[in-house]
Write the structure tokens for this entry.
Amino acid sequence: MNKVNELFAKELKVVNLGVKSFYEDLKAQQKQVVHVEWKPVAGGNQRLADMLKLLQ
Amino acid sequence: MTNLHIRKNTYYDSVALMLISKDLGQIPGVGEALVGMGTDLNKELAQNIGLDTPELTALTGNDFFVAADCTDDAVWQTVLDRVEELLAAKKQAGASDYCPATLAGAVKLMPDINMALLSVPGKYAADVARDCLARDIHVMMFSDNVTIEDERSLKEYAVERGLLMMGPDCGTAIINGVPLAFANVVRRGNIGIVGASGTGTQEVSAIIDQLGAGVSQVIGTGGRDLKQGVGGLMFAQALEALIADAATEVIVLISKPPDAAIQERILTQAAKGGKPTVVCFIGGDPAEAERLGLVAARSLEDAAHKAAALSKGAVAAAYDGFDMGEAAALTLAKEAAGRIGANGKCLRGLYTGGTLCDEAAKLLAGMGLTGKHSFIDYGDDQYTVGRPHPMIDPTLRNEALIKAANDPETALILLDCVIGYGAHADAAGELAKAIIEAKSGVPIVVSVCGTEGDPQGLTASRDALAAAGAIVMPSNAQAMRFAKLVLDVGGGVLDAPQV
């Protein structure tokens, strides 16, 4: 069974990254959801972000 | 005079800020106002509306700013107070929950996360998605402005790992009964949907619910999946999963017409799958699907009717009638035709759903109607620069409605009203206000895309629009058929000049 069909048999547990209202909609329905207060890596500084990626 | 307030290294999500900008514009004494992060896009917007200053130009994407053209300092202070108030209200709404700052933090909090809903800015979205897929987390990517190369690479990676990579630009999905992003509350059942068209998928799933049937899974792929650059990777993966899924007994495929080779591959896969499959490639040629023994649909509504019938073991008969009955529709059409002004020659379609707009225009062409008619999708990129999608903030479409309703050349106006999660909390109420404000006798035909289970409620939404004077049709396709009927009985209107 591939992982998509495995997913169909499980409770959906969601991580929301970005628009917070999508998280609020899921919370309002008592769904399992975590919201990430997402910010661009290295404050949006692309050069620094690329360097961090290399370090990883 | 332009006032500017800056907060370095403070991040807020863009949709929330765009809604704050809209709110500030209502304050007396404020001309243009813009609240946002110092991104290139926002700097350009500021320049376009005359709010740019050297300080603003020097900001980075991690800096928050408020810029407004105010008549005096007292008004500027009111603006700043209002921004504080709205930001505080937003913070308070989520205050009770701990929200980690990273994906890794979220996984620590909930180790068995299996779905990521991504709506971060497009330039960062591919990296975040890759991180999720590497952790065996399925992805629904609402973000757009992701390159087709990144899309292909992400989908190849997802297929290799047996995961869903829905999107980029995927507006709707319902997985295990959970509506994600813009989606309706659809009862559970045995119909599985794969859709490359957001509001098209919403229309089909909502009508399935209205017909008393239900869905097992609704899998979105993003609109480019069936194009050559992506090759239908996720469509094929989703279809395979539905074929293997015991809870799915009927399958519906929804897209704009795919590239020919990809279409053949997908249809062959569906035919081999052995489950009754309804194919709705909007405006496409039904012959290929029918040749392979699949059921071709002529409209989104037709697809829903056929799928609902098959799900109950009945014959998939074509549906092209009126729920209210032909006689009642004719009576209503005559009444509407009587309201068309002497110079009313043109249909004006003003849509918030891209697929609904596309379907309406194609149905119109299929009915042989020609003339100076226009169909505009206010969710198209050119109308959403720096402002939320019209399903969230209907201001632009409502302004266009008021203008069109008072244009003597307008014969009839067609509108969609999409409700459900993600959409405006009072979508029908906002539209009803604009219809009343238009103070026009021009017939206005609206179809509501949604279900009784939606937070806004289907009947409540239809009632609000009918009370405002709109003619409410049960589907986008019926709205188009009704428009044709009005023009037919109205006579003369068909003599409109050719485009």
Remarks:
- The first strand of chain A starts at residue 13 and ends at 17.
